[in-house]
Recover the amino acids of this structure.
């Protein structure tokens, strides 16, 4: 049984090496979706960039997640509209849709446009989803209501929203692809190299792109993006293919889909042991793993062999909005992270956003994502 992520097991070419002569203009810390996206954007704008990754490219959450590529923020649309105003929520959603389109272009066969299915697990959740459906529709976003679900889910969920723009990723393949493009654009990628301090980078700007992994580089912000563990399994390949579309229910606590070869990738169930999952310890636990196994067994009506089990860490933020901008009190340091478990599209988008901010472009979204709000909360 592999305890490494299924995504990282895929054979791949080594990332090409570019070497910088002397100090970089910008150092990027973290070789996930955010760091590679930021590094690529900066290098394409002519910056000299060095990327530090303590482990390997996609070795963090970006190679350990569920593979869902979803538009929007981490909180549901009406909740975000209530918190930040309808106009700003609509702008945020449209922006993620544009970025999802751009991500799909970069991803090639690492992305499949499937849509996604957000399920109501009970009548209360159905009421919430109905409100979400109505608000999205009223604001002009593509969305469909599903009253009845196909077998084997008939009668199991009282309604669902289908989100047409979404899709599914082989996330590690995507991030390696971005890293290859970044290296070709001149980014020096240093794997197995932990940056110990901002000064050590000897750069005009340092982008900390470590999401939930404690980097030690964030001064007063350290720990305010709360490390949170997610666990996943991938089963044996199955002959029957019911779930090519990403499915997620119970407010995102359960999520699953099938790969083309029939393997079920299922994650979540943090809520069976909520307190113990607020940790940066990247270990699987028997209680969550047992819940995941029981869940896939209930979906298919028989026990399934589990071929891969793994855990990863994501960064949770109190208001479920990303954190992008200068790091308060740490001169030259910038942050992009804190996606609250929703970082595939947001990470790609916020990597580009922080890069453009360093290049002097002031996007209004930066007001919404301002890092110093974490200090006054
Ligand atoms: C189990 C799980 C399931 C998820 N499912 C989904 C999903 O289906 N859809 C979705 O949108 N999101 C999902 N997420 C969230 C998403 O994976 C993350 O938000 C996203 O990958 C974060 O990307 P990142 O590049 O910002 O950080 P990461 O990919 O975590 O990369 C950060 C990197 O920084 C490195 N690092 C840390 N400190 C240093 C240092 N000092 N020097 C050098 N390197 C350092 C780490 O080694 C790590 O590789 C999930 C997360 C988990 C854990």
């Amino acid at each position: 049984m592999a305890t490494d992520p299924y995504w990282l097991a895929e054979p791949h070419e080594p990332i090409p090496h570019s070497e910088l002569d002397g100090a970089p203009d910008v150092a990027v810390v973290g070789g996930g979706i955010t760091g590679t996206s930021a590094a690529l954007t900066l290098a394409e704008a002519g910056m000299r960039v060095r990327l530090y990754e303590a482990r390997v490219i996609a070795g963090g959450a970006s190679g350990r997640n569920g593979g869902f590529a979803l538009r929007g923020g981490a909180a549901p649309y009406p909740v975000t509209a209530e918190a930040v105003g309808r106009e700003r929520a609509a702008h945020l959603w449209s922006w993620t849709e544009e970025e999802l389109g751009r991500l799909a272009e970069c991803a090639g066969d690492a992305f499949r446009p499937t849509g996604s299915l957000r399920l109501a697990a009970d009548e209360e959740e159905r009421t919430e989803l109905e409100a979400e459906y109505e608000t999205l529709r009223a604001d002009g976003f593509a969305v469909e209501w599903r009253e009845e679900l196909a077998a084997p889910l008939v009668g199991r969920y009282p309604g669902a929203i289908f989100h047409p723009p979404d899709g599914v990723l082989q996330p590690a393949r995507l991030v390696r692809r971005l890293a290859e493009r970044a290296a070709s654009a001149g980014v020096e990628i240093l794997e197995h190299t932990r940056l110990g301090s901002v000064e050590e980078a000897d750069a005009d700007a340092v982008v900390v792109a470590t999401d939930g992994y404690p980097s030690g580089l964030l001064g007063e912000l350290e720990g305010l993006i709360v490390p949170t563990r997610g666990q996943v399994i991938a089963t044996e390949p199955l002959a029957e293919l019911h779930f090519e579309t990403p499915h997620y229910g119970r407010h995102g606590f359960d999520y699953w889909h099938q790969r083309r070869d029939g393997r079920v990738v299922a994650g979540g169930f943090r809520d069976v042991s909520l307190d113990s999952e607020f940790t940066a310890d990247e270990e699987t636990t028997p209680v969550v793993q047992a819940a995941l196994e029981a869940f896939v067994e209930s979906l298919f009506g028989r026990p399934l062999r589990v071929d891969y089990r793994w855990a990863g860490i994501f960064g949770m933020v109190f208001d479920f909005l990303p954190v992008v901008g200068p790091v308060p009190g740490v001169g030259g340091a910038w942050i992009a992270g804190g996606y609250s478990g929703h970082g595939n599209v947001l990470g790609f988008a916020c990597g580009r956003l922080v890069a453009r901010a360093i290049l002097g472009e002031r996007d209004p979204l930066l007001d919404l994502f301002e890092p110093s709000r974490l200090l006054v909360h």
